[in-house]
Amino acid sequence: MLNEEKTRELFEQFTTKITYFTGDVAIIGKGTASLLMIPSLIRSGANITIFHDSETKELGVGESTVPTVQKQLTSVNLFIYQLIKKNIASYKTGVRFFGWGDSEKFDHPFGSNDLAFHFYTRDFNKFLVEHYSKNFNCKFIDQKVDKVFEDDGGVYINGSKFDAVVHASGWSENLTTYISSPFETVNSGVTFTEYPHTAYTSTVHRATEDGWQFELPYPESNKSRCGYLFNRKFSNEESILKKFEGRVESYLKWNPRYSEKLIVSKRQALIGNALFFFEPLQAFSTHYYCVFSDMIAEYLGNIGDQKKIDSLNTRYTNLILDYLRVIAFHYKKGSKYKTPYWIDIQKRANQFCPDDITSFRFFTDFDYNIIKNGINGENFIGETLNE
Questions:
Q1: In the chain, where the domains are located
Q2: Where are the beta strands (DSSP E) in 99-249?
Q3: CATH class as words, domain 4-375
């Protein structure tokens, strides 16, 4: 556990404007986004309580991250090698695309020495809960939340008072207005396991006639955790489920959308799927979980400041729209499949992300050029990939 002096030292190391705050903060839900938010609150100095309902089924799926997540976890003394040793995760050095744009194959490596990782949700989340409980006195309460009430003095969960509450347990229509994604891609997925693994340290994004398939390699177990992603408007659910008959581990459906606000009242905010979800492309959502967590932590020392609320909500909206343009950028050249899904999405991608948009907040110039050249059938220095 960090004492106050160590917490302040750690707090000063981060450039994000997290406000030092020693009040009581509750998170509702203990999914991946919730657990990735906890380091931001620890750095702020908050006392943290997490409410969860053990009767709510956890998603047993494979996930991956970007280097932002490792930096987030490093701040609470968690490192990738620890997860590898416990067989919870595998190293990730980038993404390998098959059949996207005009390329048979191209790689998008991380443009630095930073690393990320693939993980299996249940094992990873269990490990984080144990780490936070043991080392940072985070309180995990197995209790269904029946009522959340806010007044000028605080927020009350099942009768217990907190200075602020973050909702991370799914869509919260009673707190916010949701906006449908202006650039919808896939909205359904079938997860399954494939043997042997299909890569060593790269997440695979493989274009299919219905959309695309992710493959997360776990070399130590010689397997890949996969997800076949599609859009229900273009593909028949029954046909796809039949294709994977006997192999389906989960079938997921969602409506791509985002909350109108990050800070939804003076003392309440949203994170995770309660805030937004579009699609799993490049695991970008995990980057934004960390970014928005820091923004919420930044607000804690300014509770009730309407100018701060408005400023953060405006910044959040701009980041969401930038994120959607990054997604569209990947689809601008379509794929090797000329199916209704790909024809439609390529057209819409070029409308939503026209050629005069040549930079993004999250992407560096290196990332931009890797994807641009990759989908155009060239490598980073402009040589044709398919010759």
A1: 4-375
A2: 105-109, 116-120, 139-142, 148-151, 154-157, 160-162, 164-167, 178-180, 188-194, 202-207, 211-218, 223-230
A3: alpha beta
